[in-house]
Amino acid sequence: MHPKPLSKIQRLLRAHGDRSMTYISAFECQGGIVLCADTQETHEATGARKDEMEYVEKLYAPENLSFPIAVGGAGIDEPIEALALELFQHVERQPPATISDLRTAIQASVEKVHSSDARVSAWPRMYRTTKCIVAAKPTNDEFAIFVTTGKRVSFRKKEPVIIGYDTPANMALLKRMYRPGLPMQQAVMLSIYLLSQSKARDVGVGGDPRIVIVRDNGAWIDDPEYVKQFEVFIGDFLKLIDPLFLDCVDVSIPPSNAFPEKLARFGETVTQLRSKALIYSGAHSLNKAFADPNWRGDAYSKIFPGATTTVMEDGYVSVRETPLEEIEERKKMMKEVYDAADKQELERFDSMVLGRQILYLGNEKAMVTGARKKAP
User: Fold this and answer.
1) Do 201 and 247 lie in a common domain?
2) Tally of CB atoms within 10 A around 2
3) ∠ CA 265-268-269 to the nearest 5 degrees?
4) Is 95 helix (H, G, I), strand (E, B) or coil?
5) What is the domain range of residue 169?
6) pLDDT tens sequence across 76-111
7) How many domains does the chain have?
8) Which of 9, 120, 178, 202 might form a disulfide with 15, Cβ 3.0–4.6 angstroms?
9) pTM of the entire structure?
10) Three-state SS across 294-357?
11) Same-domain pairing of 194 and 85
12) Is 48 helix (H, G, I), strand (E, B) or coil?
């Protein structure tokens, strides 16, 4: 028997997925829906050409639309963008009140795109195979996820979905890790983790992760810098957790001292890494609040409620839990400020600086202090 050509073997080794080499996931969590996508587009080699890769955004969220909706697409960008624009215009004119209304709006937008844009497109066939995820919150109903394929619109998806590389391995990992009612931050971290696993395994999936969050007050594009950094943190956590798993199931390790020592070292190391991630989150949110005039705030809590962040003169940042007595004292101080100041003027601001001592960021979610670093 003649051996198979090397090129054919390499093709067979490639993961089977969407022609556009896309990974997009969407699932519900507490307070909304999280969508995650890669940002790499791969054009497969033909003849003597090599695979070509380019950056592309695959998630669409309206910039100035209060109706909570987002679209993610697998395929060429032309039909995906056309559907997103048509759908956004449709829900702006007539916001869907129920899940049934939302599905009707999606179906009408799909048909409009196929009757107009596809007819004049240079790639009309691609409109028939393009796959999209639509996530939204109707005004009088629950959050909902739909999947479109060509002209077809699915019924509401109550389970998490992946389009593009919805391979058995990716779906099995999603099913193992996902739990209904996940806190939103855990859902975001899970979506980044799942994408990182697909990037490591599936040919064509790559680039930085993108996150869009659909809440009842709109669609939020999570900060790309933050998401990219937490992809690194997730990899660091896995480097600690994977060896611990093997140590846990290795019953040849003596239980008297060797295993407790390994467990103690793990606890110390993972606590240090978690502190590093917490400090990054606190510093990142502060930086966005002061340096970005277009920042709307975070779509979800990136540090725990009531955290106190201390910023030293040398730029060092620490985040700690605030004692109840300190919280009550600061509430008292804030009340005194409001009683003594022009409330209408204060309400123009989302944050206030009191001298050089205390910074308060709204709704008692975070308190920040400025302090001099003590001499060693």
Assistant:
1) no
2) 4
3) 85
4) coil
5) 15-42+51-222
6) 888 899 999 999 999 999 999 999 999 999 999 999
7) 3
8) 202
9) 0.81
10) CCCCCCCCCCCCCEEEEEECCCCEEEEECCHHHHHHHHHHHHHHHHHCCHHHHCCCCEEEECCC
11) yes
12) coil
